[in-house]
Design brief:
Helix content is 27%, strand content 25%. It contains 6 helices and 9 strands; from the N terminus they run βββαβαββαβαβαβα. It has a 9-stranded mixed sheet with strand order 3-1-2-4-5-6-7-8-9.
Length: 215
């Protein structure tokens, strides 16, 4: 007997991808419920518990109906749900380019190699740095990306140290200013001063749509 996996779903929506090297592309988002961390700057607290069980096959149908080829699975932390791994594989089998935004606390080796992991390295300013599984930085595949959300100059310096310690310049590295903590201009100036080979990562969707949910 085939058992169809389910996931606890918070929401789905189509929007412009706002982050990563895929920023600017139309994207279908699947936001799963639940998170094992509580970051100081979290902007999706509603995803901690809100949602309902949905079959993976139903989400495949929704992705196809979106008419888009790029799909992001996010949360919360999607990888704390067993069904998320099957969802990634089934979407990849169906020809979608899949991005998985993960907080770095869960082993990424089980992720389908066709997917792109966007690994959010928790800086000290997040309050969750000690929850990181830093071994994930050695598990990155060639197309994976690494994101640092930066709240202060101390976070910036810590992030630069991590980039060097784990030889991350060879990867796609994103430095993102935490909204309400530092301005994009300030982070840009620090990046330029240090001559860093990183991408300034802004939440493009918020410039377009504001802080609305589901965009």
């Amino acid at each position: 007997m085939i058992v169809t996996k389910t996931v606890k779903l918070c929401e789905t929506f189509s929007s412009i991808q706002g982050e990563s090297s895929y920023a600017g592309y139309p994207c279908f988002f699947i936001r799963l419920t639940g998170c094992n961390l509580r970051c100081s700057y979290c902007d999706t607290e509603y995803a901690y518990a809100e949602g309902e069980e949905v079959e993976v096959t139903e989400l495949l149908k929704k992705a196809r109906e979106s008419g888009l080829s790029l799909v992001e699975i996010t949360g919360g932390e999607p990888l704390i749900q067993e069904g998320a791994f099957e969802l990634v594989t089934r979407l990849s089998d169906s020809g979608f380019q899949v991005l998985v935004e993960t907080n770095g606390s869960v082993d990424i080796t089980r992720l389908d190699p066709r997917a792109v992991a966007v690994l959010d390295v928790k800086t000290p300013g997040s309050g969750m740095s000690e929850k990181m599984d830093f071994r994930n930085l050695y598990r990155l595949r060639p197309n994976d990306e690494v994101k640092f959300v930066i709240t202060s100059k101390d976070d910036f310096l810590w992030s630069v140290e991590m980039v060097n310690r784990y030889s991350l310049p060879q990867k796609r590295v994103l430095f993102s200013p935490a909204k309400g903590y530092i301005e994009p201009k300030q982070l840009a100036e620090w990046i330029l001063k240090e001559r860093l080979s990183v991408r300034l990562n802004l939440q493009l969707h918020k410039f377009i749509f504001g802080d609305k949910r589901g965009v």
